[in-house]
Design goal:
By secondary structure, this protein is of the alpha/beta class. It has helices at residues 39-46, 111-116, 133-139, 150-156, 171-181, 197-202, 206-212, 227-236, 259-267, 278-281, 296-305; strands at 12-13, 16-17, 54-56, 75-78, 89-92, 101-103, 141-149, 168-169, 190-194, 222-223, 240-243, 289-291, 309-314, 324-325, 329-332. The strands form four sheets. It has a nine-stranded mixed β-sheet. The longest helix has 11 residues, at 171-181. The chain binds acetylphosphate (UVW). Residues 69, 97, 103, 107, 247, 278, 291 line the site of acetylphosphate.
Amino acid sequence: MGTLPSYDELPRRAGLPASWGVWGPDGSDVFGCLNLLTPERVVAAARLVQRGAVFALNWKMRLPDPPLFDRQPFTHEVTGGPGSTSHDDVLHGWNTQSSSQWDGFRHIRNHAALADEPGTGHYGAVPDDEHGMHHWARRGIVGRAVLADVGRWRAAVGRPLQYDRPDPIEPDELAACLAAQGTELHEGDVLLVRTGWLGWYEQQPADVRARLAQTEHLVSPGLRSGEHLAEVLWNLHIAAIGCDNPAVEVWPPGALSSPEHEAEVRADRRRLHEIFTHTLLLPMLGLPLGEMWDLEALADDCAADGRYECLFTSAPLHLEAGVASPPNALAIK
Ligand code: UVW
């Protein structure tokens, strides 16, 4: 289709490429790349269903345990007693990002945009509290998804991903993985990237999990951070990306930079995008990020039948002004 500007052609805000204005004037667009999920693409994606095989992509709500990034575990109260006619669930202290999640557009601000245009910093110059999961919930997220099983591919080429360190996945490796699978990405696709991190995590003993839960000790493989990642993902013209690792990109930010560069960037939050690509992908490009999605069963099925495309549906929480949500995503083949 080729309807979108390339990364180099995007208008710049605060000196950074931004898709603000691509789908609507400043202050109006709460969907970003989800705008690519047109009715025509939904119809085409529905035709991909051949066997009726359904893969639910939410991980257990209790995993990771403990939650990462120092988030607190929730407690689950079941109301009523043994003789009650009914029970209800009450979740206390539940953080919408403690397990599989969409990062919405309220999650991350770009400080260069905020400094340059006070009152902005979130996607599309939409005020922080006018973004929210409720917009995505009302729209629904449906289209064609393509799985890139990078974990399986890296193992097959003799360089298995290392899960206990910030092993970077290079953009050309993503392309090589898709080519090896014989898979083509189309404009408006949801790109699913399996690293294998989630399956590895499930095998880890309690002491390793407890250490990973502390932000200063979390390490994980992921897409190589930096502006080049933003360029590569934008130029794919995908509607969203969903991965099975903690942060889509490698963790921690700065792990692949020199200590001097990392120190400079941390001293000036307007430059955070140089090590932490979230600050370009969400607020500047409007690309929804999915993290810690359970892609294991889907990946096994794709490896078995050689088909890496499917119908994708996601119904986020209808949470007014919500920052994030479990994806409640299904992949259907
Ligand atoms: C990061 O932003 C890195 O992770 P999360 O979306 O879980 O906060």
